[in-house]
Amino acid sequence: MNSPESSLYEDAFKRLFSNKLSLFSFIFISFISLLAILTPLIAPYDYAYQDLDLGPSGPSKAHWMGTDVLGRDLFTRILYGSRISLMVGFLATVVALFIGVIWGTVAGYAGGKTDTIMMRIVDAMYGVPFIILIILLMVIFGRNLILLFVAIGAVEWLTMSRIVRSQVRSLSQQEFVLAAKAMGVSRIDIIFRHLIPNTVGPVIVYATLTVPQIMLLEAFLSFLGLGVQAPMSSWGILIRDGAVSMEEYWWLLVFPSILFSLTLYSLNFIGDGLRDALDPRTM
Amino acid sequence: MISLIFRRFLAALPVLLIVVTITFFMVHSAPGGPFDADKAVSKEVLEQLNERYNLNEPVWKQYFIYLSNVVQGDFGPSFRYPSRSVTELILTGLPITFELALYSIIFAVFLGVSAGLISGLKPNTSYDYIPMTIAMAGICIPSIILGPSLSLIFGITLQWVPVSGWGDIPGDKILPVITLGTAYAAYCARLTRGGMLEILNQDFIRTARAKGLSETRVVLVHALRGGLTPVVAFLGPAMAGLLAGSFVVETVFGIPGLGRFYVEAAFNRDYTMILGTTIFFSSLIILFNLLADVIASALNPKLR
Predict the structure, then answer these.
(1) Which residues, 6 or more positions from A141, have their beta carbon under 8 angstroms from its beta carbon?
(2) Which of A114, A163, A177, B147 has its CA 20 to 30 A from that of A216?
(3) A67 - beta bridge partners?
(4) Cα nearest neighbour of A254 on chain B
(5) What is the model's pLDDT at position B36?
(6) Counting beta carbons within 10 angstroms of the beta carbon of residue A174, is it exposed (0 to 12), middle (13 to 18) or buried (19 or more)?
(7) CA distances from A265 to A14, A20, A25, A130, A269 (A)
C-alpha cells in the first residue's frame, strides 16, 4: 500500500484522515482554534459588557446563545473562554514537552548512573499528589495565569520524559547513531539532529493527549473558583456559573458544556487516531 | 514479598517528607498573614494568637515543631475554627469522602471491567465499538459537566433522585457516585480491553484452550488474571484522581466531606487546615500508590 516515496508521516496522516471521525475532530479543533485566535475581531460584544436591564435572556437573534445573569453575551464569553482554555492547554503542553523531551533524551543517551538517578527522580515525583499542590499554589500566589501553566507544565512532563527516554535508549543502539559517533559527530549534534527528531512520533501522540488533560485541569480549577479571575472568562468558569443557575437558565450550562466536551472528545480522538496511525503494528 | 513492601515503603518516606516540607514553606511564604482579614483584632489579642500558634518563632523552628506534632498525629488547631483541631475536622470529613470514593471505585471497576471484557473478547465488532464509544464519551464529559447535568436531568426535571446531601434522604448517594465513578469506569473499560487483547494472543491461553478447558474458564481464570494487571496498576493513581474529584463532586452535591473542607480551607486561608489536609491527602495517595504497586507485582511476578 505504500508507494516508495511516501514517508512515515505522509502515510500516517493518510491513515488518520481516512477515518471520518478523526477527520471531523481535526476540522473541529482547527475551527475552534481559529475562532479563539480571531476572537477580538469577531466577538459581537465586549466580554465584560453588562446589560443589566436585559439580565438573563434565552437564545435570541441579538444574543444567539443567550445572556448570563448580568446580561453579558454568552457567545462572546464562550469565545473569550476558549482563548484561555486552549492557551493554557497548548502552552502548558509546550512547557511539558520542552522539559520532558530534554530530560528523557539526556537520561536515555547518557545511560548508566546518570540515567538511573534521573529516572529515580521521575519515579519519586510520580508519587507526589500534584493536583493538590497546584491548588495550594493558586491559593497562595493568586490566580496568575502564567504561573498556572508553568505549574501544570512542570507536572505533566513526567510521562513525556519516560516515553522519550525509552525511545532514545533503543535508538542509540542503532547503526546510524553508532555510525554518527564513529564519524566524530558531537554529542549535542547526535542528540538534536539524530535522536530527538526520531522520537517525534510518540511525542506527538502523547502531546495531543496531554492538551485535553491540561484543559480539564484548568476547567477544574476554575470550577472551584481557583482559575482565572472575573470578569475574564474560561470554560471552567462558564460551566460553574451555568451550574449555579441551571434551574432557571439552562442555556448557561448547556452551551459551554457541549463545546467543552466536544473539544475534549476531538483532541482525545485525534490522539488515539494518531497513535494507531503512527504505530503500524496495531494495524 | 515482604521485602518488596518494605523497600517501597522506605522509598515513599522521603517523598512524603519532601511534600510536607514544600507545603509548609509554601504556606509560610504566602503573602498576608492568616489574621490580616480580622482587622478588628487588638494588638494584645494578635500577640496572644501569634504566641499560641508559635508564629513568633523563626520559621525553621516552627517547621520542626510542626513536624514533630504531625508525626504524633497532631495537625494543630484550625485557624478558622480555633475551638476545633485539624485532626478532628479531618476525622469528621474522612468517613464521608472515603465512602464516596469506595462506592465510586466499586461502580467504576464493576462497570468498566464488564464493558472491557465484552469489547476485548469480540474486538472490532459492534460489541467492541459501542462500549468503547461510550467509554470515550465518559472520559470526555468531566465531572464538572456530568454532575450539574445529571442533577438537572434526574434531580430537578424528572425528580427521581435527590440532588444534595449524603445519607440524609434515601437515594442521595446515587448521583455523586455516578458522577465521580463514570470517568474511571471508562478508563477501566479501555484498560481491560487492551489487557485482554494482549493476553488472549499469548501461548499459555492457546495451551489452556488446547487442553480443552471451557471458554469461560479460560477467560475468567487464565486471561483475566493477567488482563487485569493494567487496571490494578491504574487504581493507585485513580485514587489520587478520585480524591481530587471529590472536591468537585462534594461541592456540586453539597456533601460535607474532606474535599469540601479542603476547598473551604483554601478560600478561608485556614493555613493549618490546608497544611493538615494536604499532608493527609498526600499520605493517602502515596499509600494507595504503594498498595497498587504491591498488588500489581503480586499478580505479575515479572514486575518484581
Answers:
(1) A147, B30, B31
(2) A163
(3) A57, A73
(4) B149
(5) 56
(6) exposed
(7) 21, 14, 8, 24, 6
pTM of the model as a whole = 0.81
Question: A239–B140: do the CB atoms touch at under 8 Å?
Answer: no
Please give the residue of chain A at the shortest CA–CA distance from B24. Answer: A136
Q: Among all chains, which residue has been given the C-alpha cell 473551604?
A: B264
CB proximity B147 to A under 8 Å: yes
* pLDDT tens string A226-266: 777 767 788 888 898 888 888 888 888 889 999 999 999 89
Residue A2 Cα to chain centre, angstroms: 32
pLDDT recorded at residue A283: 38
Position B32 pLDDT exceeds 60 = no
Residues in chain A closer than 8 A to B240 (CB atoms): 129, 131
CB-based contact A243 B18, cutoff 8 Å: no
Collapse the DSSP code of B34 into the 3-class scheme (helix H, G, I; strand E, B; otherwise coil) and give the result. Answer: coil
Strand partners, B85: B77
Helix (H, G, I), strand (E, B) or coil at B284: helix
In the beta sheet, which residues pair with residue B77?
A: B85
Q: Is B134 on the interface with A (CB under 8 A)?
A: no
Residue contact A127–B289, C-beta within 8 A: yes
In whole numbers, what is the pLDDT of chain A averaged over residues? 82
In the prediction, which pLDDT does A127 show? 67
Nearest-by-Cβ selection for A268 from B27, B140, B148: B140
Q: Would an 8 Å CB–CB cutoff place A220 in contact with chain B?
A: yes
Does A268 score more than 90 pLDDT? no
Chain B from 251 to 270: CB within 8 A of any A CB: 251-252, 262-263, 266-267, 269
Residue A243 forms contact with B (CB below 8 Å): yes
CA distance B241 to B236: 9
Distance CA B226, CA B204 (A): 11
Ramachandran bin of B85, using left for φ above 0, alpha for ψ from -120 to 50, beta for the remaining angles:
beta
Question: Residue B22 burial by CB count (10 A; 0-12/13-18/19+): exposed, middle or buried?
Answer: middle
